[in-house]
Design a protein that fits this description.
Elements (H helix, E strand, L loop, with lengths): L6 H4 L13 E6 L12 E2 L8 E4 L4 E2 L3 E13 L7 E8 L1 E5 L5 H11 L6
Antiparallel strand pairs: 1-7, 2-3, 3-5, 4-5, 5-6
Length: 120
């Protein structure tokens, strides 16, 4: 079992950091400066050591997301368990992977922690 992660090290301080951290082994968050500093081709995994390489320079918004074009923008990860090579289409802000299924209460906790960020 992985050590418990402190939420303030995982998530951006620009919105509620109260997501479920237990068993979180992959988390990239475009709004968290510890995950992406606003430039460059590395999107850092704040929950582990497998980072993401951004290919074809998808545009980054200071609102906290990448705007993938669906044609040649990729997020490449060297550990297939997490993401492999993924071509995205649209806005991608957060990707998380847990080593277990979350309970209904934990899913609700994650949703409620980020409602304001995503305008829900």
């Amino acid at each position: 079992m992985q050590p418990r992660l402190r939420n303030e090290n995982i998530m951006s301080t620009n919105y509620s950091p109260e997501i479920v951290a237990d068993d979180l082994d992959f988390c990239v968050d475009a709004l968290a400066t510890s995950s992406y500093g606003g430039s460059g081709t590395t999107w850092y995994n704040v929950a582990g050591s497998t980072n993401v390489t951004l290919s074809s320079s998808p545009p980054f918004s200071s609102a906290g997301y990448f705007d993938f074009d669906g044609v040649n923008d990729y997020a490449i990860c060297n550990y297939a368990k997490h993401c492999g090579a993924a071509r995205a289409n649209g806005k991608v802000a957060v990707v998380r992977h847990y080593t277990r299924a979350l309970s209904v209460a934990e899913i609700s906790q994650n949703f409620n922690a980020q409602r304001v960020r995503f305008g829900v």
